[in-house]
Structure formats: structure tokens, C-alpha cells
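Below is how a single chain appears once it has passed through the pipeline. First comes the sequence as given, then the structure the pipeline wrote out for it. We keep one example in the README because the format questions we get most often are answered faster by looking than by reading.
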Amino acid sequence: MKTLITLMALTLTTASASSAAGVTPFTFAHMSDTHIADTPSHDANLKRAVDEWNAMDPRPAFVIHTGDITEMGQEEQFARYEQDIAAAKMPVHNTPGNHETRWADKSINRFAEHYGSPNISFLHNGVRFIGFNAAIWLEHHGAVSGDTRRWIVEQLKKDPKGTPAVLFCHQSPMYPDNVYITGDVELWDAIAPYNVRAFLNGHGHIFKSWTVNGVFCHMTKGMMNDGGGYTLYEVGTDAIRVYDKLNGEEKTLVATLPLHDTPVGVRVSKVKAGAYQAAVSANGRKIARVEWAVDYHQNPDDKFWKPLDATGPGRFSFPLDSAELSPGRHTLAVRAVDADGGVWISKCLPVDGAASSLKAARMDLGTALQGPAAVDGSVAYVGGWDGKLYAVALKGGALKKQWAFATGGAVIGRPDFDERAVYFGSTDESVYAVDKRTGKQIWKFATHGPVQGHTLAAGGSVYVGSGDHSLYALDAGTGKQRWAFPMGLHMQSRPVFADGFVYAGSWDGKVYAIDAATGEGKWAYSVSKSLFFASAVATPLVADGKVIVTRSCAPTETDGAHVLCLNAQTGEKVWAYHLPSGSPAYSSPTTDGKSVFLCTLGGKLFTLGLADGKPGWESQMSEIAYDCSPVYTDGKVICNTLLGSLEAHDAATGAKLWSWKTGGGLTFAWPTVSNGVTWLPSFDGSLTAVRP
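Resulting structure:
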């Protein structure tokens, strides 16, 4: 089964209370993080909860599961979960979590095969429920993409004004302690006109509540943890009563939520260069403090917020010196915190950073951009969660869309091209070739799993891995299969072609050398027996007869290799390097022919000698990194951060040369440099091109 998975002033308003009178009382339960695998206690906790729900009077009308249903998204784990939940005498509505997507060969597609679309919407007794997929293909973090945000609003529009609504997903929106999700800031703005009363989530495995813009956010306990637990919601004609409950214990009242509320209005505007003003309408609430912050959604901790002093009733003015910000695009917000700890936040206002000799062009494509761009001269090819491959040209200092080609799934990997065509995969389980000039399809090749990895075009062939555990070699001209190399699990990284061989890492923990002509394996090096420490995310570096790969190390591996250098001909280990702290597991290495450049998850750039693996310079970037890989070009090393910054460092010394903030979305792509222009896609839907 193939399923499509695609995914500045403001006064907050909610609808009138009158529509809430149509609510008929009922109860529902919320669970999360069952993590079903081969751990009997996880099954026992879930079965005990099912027994409790079945015995309740009144019985819950339904149960919501906010993801991490399974430990690894495997078929047998879904089957085991369904056996555990089979005795439930009420419907169970499921949404996926990161454990359904992070390591899974079929990722969200397998979830869809079992439960249909991961985005679900239904009306029950006068309350609208909207569940959506916040998990990212092959990633740990969460996202509300532009496509998902628009779909949520479409669901809210279906009902009369004032209809109470409950949203639910896995990762936590606007979580006060960490950045779990991207796109939630834009979501709050989109749902402001509607009567959203609660937002349910999991991921953190604990009971925790917070309030944003009058919406009660609640994380429920992981069902796998200790003896398990869940949250009960008793919906009445005028309020929702929320109870946390541990299996086998009495429920505890957490909150009573009115079915309608009067909001606090918060708005921010620019008066002139460097001067801003804010207005707060308390609407009868006691406001404890009013604060402002730049890029707060990436730094949720209270310490990043600065207090505002009133210049009049509900009026505030404050300066913001752009010279204090890095060059590029930032976001400004104002929040009011009421006496109960509830946060009321304005819509973000874009602000420019410090002056710079760099110039940038930016385009919003309206859909999450997960993978890197392939750039041919001044034209970038980049895929989106909406299932399209876009061609975008840099002309006259501006970005202009040339064409878009639609597939039946998300396009999340990096495409590649030759003189005639662009080649790429889709989660609809197919590989495509389209004409570079027109965007018209040339051929299509069907695999047996979602194509989540990056594509390589080399030597007249197209190489790409599929969720069916095969690395395919296809004829670039016709799309016909030349060979398929079986791996133990799926591929995520990009294959590398060198000297007649293809090198690739897999989630099965091995790095392979494959004869490019015949598809026969020459050697395989076992990096790890556990997929948690596989060389699967980062693309291998092949240079000077060596293959450089990165991996994670278990905490017990005090001398385990984070970086391995293998002989390209034999697969024998040449050298290995263990970092004293940090890990470069998700960073693809690059080289200038003498040094190997890498980046850790903490954002530390460092070098190793290509010949011997001896460490060289280190340089700390301004933000953390994730799937962020350095690129070497013209004496510089350019790398991005998870939070959307680009930094260029001197390849010889590590000194920072320049930086540019591209926006507010999380960034899992790495930069691409062509003709001196650095391109970076972002999960907020933006494509940025930075040039001297």
C-alpha cells in the first residue's frame, strides 16, 4: 500500500461562548509513549490501562495515543501493540511519534498502512478533535509544517464559530524547557481566531502542564515508564476537568478548563529604526510581567526574555539595536505573563540583524524543506514535504521559482543532476528523472519502500537507497535497473562514487564498498552491531584512497571511535579517532585534501589530519548542530546550525569569517555552494541564498 504523507501586530481573539452550549458531556483518555517492542513491562502497563478504561463508569468515549507507539517502528512491534490494545472497548485514535520515524525503514508510511493518514479530525459531542503528525522523517525533532498548519485551520473552519477544539500530536508545542518542535510559533498565530481549549502531547514521558495564549498544554506520562499512567479528560457543558492518573492509583485533578475564555491581547510593532512599541490588553486579568525576546522560540528559557517597563497604561516602548544581532533575519516577540503563569505571546515580527557586506535572497515555498538543495550554476533543486521538487533560480539578486514537479509523497532527500535531468526519490516509493529545463517527467522507477535518502548521479547511473533495504543503480537515461544491492536495513545518507566503486553506509551498522559496474560487494566493514551507533546519517568521505565515516559511541565506549578511516580498496582500518566530548555522528566529513573537517552535535567544528587522524584546530559555532555538515570551498569551511545560522570559518585556522541567520525554522539540510553563493533550505519553508 502506498500512502501520500505530505505533509505585524496581533490581538488574540476567541469566539463567543454561546456555541459551547452545544457540548454534550463525555470522557476521553490520553496516553503516550508505549514504546512497544520486546519489553514485557511495556505490554503489561498498556494492558492494565486498557482494563481500567473498560471498567470505568462512564467509560471513556475514546482514547488518544500521541505517539511513540513502538520502539523502532517495526512491523512486528505494531502487531504487538495491536494485540495489547485489542481488548479496548472504545476507539483508539493514534498519531505517530519520532520512534515511528527516526530509525524506521518505512517510517510514516508504515504507520499509515496500519492506521491511515497520520492527520485525523473528528467532531465528538460538540468538540472538534484534531490530531496531526509532528514527527519528521528520519529525525528526532518535531515539526508543524506549513502544509499541516493550513490543514489544521481547514478543520477548525468546518465548525460554527466558538466550537471548542482539542489539538494533539507527539512533540510538545511551545515547551517551556526545550526546543522540541519547529513551526509551533506560526501555528499559535494560525489558531488564534478559534476556540482551541487544549493541546495534548507526549514525548517527555512526564506529567507536565503549561498555558500559551489561553490554550492548556498537557504532556502525559509515558505509558512505558514505571507502572504506566495516562490523563483523563471529563468534558462538561461548561468546562473540561483534567486528571492525571497512574495505573492502579486514584486520579488527581490537574486543571479545570472553561470551554470559552477571554484572551489577553498582545501586539508589537516597529516605530522606527531601532525603536519598537508593545501594547497589552489585559481584559480583566492580572499581568505579572511583560517581556521581549529575539528568536525566543529557539531559546525558550526565561533567561532569554528581557523585562519591559510601562510608558503608559498597557503601553511599552523599547530599543533594539540591530548591531547586537548577527547579520540576517531574526524574529522579535513580546509576551505577557499573567498571575497564574499563563503566557500570552504576540506574533513574531521579522527584524534584520547587523549590517553586513553579504547579500541574501530568500523565498518562502510554503512547505517544509528537509533535505539539502542540489545547485546547478544559479538554479537550485530542492524537495518539499508537499511532495514537490522545486527549481528555483537566482536572478537579479532575487529568487524566482522556475517550475515544480509533484510526486505522490514527500521529497526529503537531496536530488542530483547531470547535463539533462534532475534525479530524486520520494516517499511514494519511487525514483524520478525530470527535465532540468521544463520540469517534465522523463522516467519513474518503483521501489518497494519509501525513498528517504539522498540521490547520486555519476557515470551514467543513478544511485539511491530505498526503505526496502536495497541500494539501487539505475540507468540515468532510461531508469531501468542495473542492479540492486541488498543491505541489512535502509539507507539515509548519500552514496559516494569513486574509482569504479560505490561507498555507502546503512542503518544495519555496516559501511559497504560495491562494484559500480556489477553491483557486487567488495567489502563490508561493521561499524556497530546496534543501529543506534550506525554510520547511517552522515555521507562517507572518499579521498586519497581512504573512506572516512562517523558514528556514535555508547557511553561505555570510552575509547570507541567516533571517526573511522578505512582503506578504500580493502576496508581495513587505517586510523580511528575518539572525541573527548561530543559526537560528530550526524556530520558528513569534507576535506581540502589535507585536513578532514567535521562538526559535533554541540556545534563544534574541528579538523583531523586526512593521513593520520591527528586533531588540528577547533572552533565553536554560535549554536548547536544536528544533521549539519561542513562544506569546503575556496579556503573556507561553511557549516550551518540546527537553528538556521550559516557560518564560514577559515580552513587553515578555524577563525570565524562571517555568519548569517536565515530565519526561525530548524535546519536539517546542509549548505550547498555554487559560484560563490551558499544555499540553505529550512523547515520553515524558506530557501536562502547568501552571496558576497
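Residues 1-19 have pLDDT under 50 and may be disordered.

See the next section for the split statistics.
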